[in-house]
Fold this protein.
Amino acid sequence: MNGIQVARRNPRIVVALAGTVTAAVALAACSAGTGSSAASSSVATPSASASASSSGESGKEAHWSYAGSDGPAAWGSLSNAFEECQIGQAQSPIDVQDPVQQTAPAPQPDYRPAVSAIVDNGHSIEATPTVAAGDLDVAGEPFSLKYMHFHAPSEHTINGKSFPLEMHFVNKTPEGAATALGVMVEPGAVNPAWQPLITAMANVKSGAPVTAPLPWNSMAPTKFRAYNYPGSLTTPPCTQPVDWYLVDQPITMSSAQIAAFTSRYSNTNRPVQPVNGRTILLTGSN
Ligand SMILES: [Zn+2]
């Protein structure tokens, strides 16, 4: 678990320089994987419950999962390091309701195709570009694409609606500020942009990354509005703040493509958390 876990419990909080809600976390903005996981020689063993572990302040390993005695309701009590899961007042995910329309533009992905390492990190399948794959432009500031993984079903809901998949694109500045771009998936037409990852994913075994070129420029939508709110990591240690952007319209994949993901991991969604008065912005005009 090594580097993955170390990175996860030591998020470096930084404040980005631009944007309306700019506090960010220099880490996995939402889940356990990190941009460096592809380089790790030892990744977690996958399991049906997507269980994982992390060292608490005591140094003992604190196991967590998405169900049972070490499931989300217990995360905050599993380790001192996970305290924020229980006491944090700006946690993620949330149900998106009553957004406030903004004149600020939505973030603009400017990704490009890149050879990427695809790993099973014990929670999800995660793809990490091994060369520069472009940026997410947020209010004029470029955040480089670091990695992408999925949750099934979606972690965020929109007016109570859940989706079969939620893809998390994590982007960072050189200084470590990060933004998370969440993209919902609903059943529909075959999505050719995602097929290279799905094809490569079939060969991914625990601890054995598979390398493949991925068309990042086509995997993420390029024109959209996005819900923006201040949240947290959605996995222990549930660190906040994290700057979230959720694309307001889902992309489609065929049922078979969706099943390619859900057959690897499912029920990897933390329940929605109390909004506690946070304002949800809707950025972008269309
Ligand atoms: Zn995530």
Observations:
- The longest helix spans residues 2-9.
- Confidence is low (pLDDT under 50) at residues 1-60.
